[in-house]
Amino acid sequence: MKTTLFLARHGQTKWNKVHRFQGQLDSNLTQEGQQQSEKLALNLVTQQIDLIVSSTLGRSVDSALICQRILNIPIAQVNELNERNLGPWQGQYIADIKSDRNYHEILHQFTETSPLNGESAVSCGSRIYQALEALATSHFNKKILVIFHGEALRCFLAKLGHNSSGNAYELFDNACLLPLTYLHGDDSFQLAK
């Protein structure tokens, strides 16, 4: 048995557009972000999705609501899918933080280093892994659209062993889609090829 998770990043926000870190803060979807969310749903119309799950942050919820109007299926919100907590970096412009000596390690690598009072990539990856595993094990043989965040997605994939040297902005476009299968027989995730 398996559960299929369609992992998606929320649509573009006002802060995405100006390269400002959101983390667990929020900004509204742009018009383009709304259109991206519509397109995301339209790309999944033939997949017979059973449920949409989003983080509790407004940008993910708004993207999920747009998808719900098209797919006409229920939505659930899961707090554990929220974006990585970037501490005092939240709300800051990327250009202003790049000079921090830990910038590259924190946002390009999978380590225990974090911004002051923030969350490490390793902790974030584990949190997302546990949330997605719980979702998969409670929805046998279902197809679920999961709308959450780029940095959280980067950390989760790194936990699965898919490391990269890029940051979330470089790796994941807004409203990108990544199919993932959870195999119940051996309790493992497998990226679709």
Describe, in plain words, how this protein is organized in 3D.
The chain is an alpha/beta fold and 193 residues long. Helices cover 37% and strands 17% of the residues. Helix 2 (31-43) packs across helix 3 (58-71) and helix 6 (121-137) crosses helix 7 (150-159). The protein is globular.
**Which residue ranges are poorly predicted, with pLDDT under 50 across at least 5 consecutive positions?**
none
Structural class: alpha/beta
Number of helices: 8
Query: Which range best describes the helical content: under 10%, 10-25%, 25-40%, 40-55%, 55-70% or over 70%?
Result: 25-40%
Q: Compute the average pLDDT.
A: 96
Number of strands: 6
Major β-sheet annotation: 6 strands, mixed
Approximate strand percentage: 15-25%
Question: For the terminal residues, how far apart are their CA atoms?
Answer: 18 Å
Q: Largest beta sheet: what is the strand line-up? A: 3-2-4-1-5-6
From the spread of the alpha carbons, the general shape counts as: globular
Radius of gyration: 16 Å
Order of helices and strands: EHHEHEHHHEHHEE
Provide keyphrases for this structure.
193 residues, alpha/beta, six-stranded mixed beta sheet, 8 helices
Write the layout of secondary structure elements.
Elements: E1 2-9, H1 14-17, H2 31-43, E2 51-54, H3 58-71, E3 75-77, H4 94-97, H5 103-108, H6 121-137, E4 143-148, H7 150-159, H8 168-171, E5 177-183, E6 188-191
Parallel strand pairs: 1-4, 2-3, 2-4
Antiparallel strand pairs: 1-5, 5-6
Helix pairs in contact: 2-3, 6-7
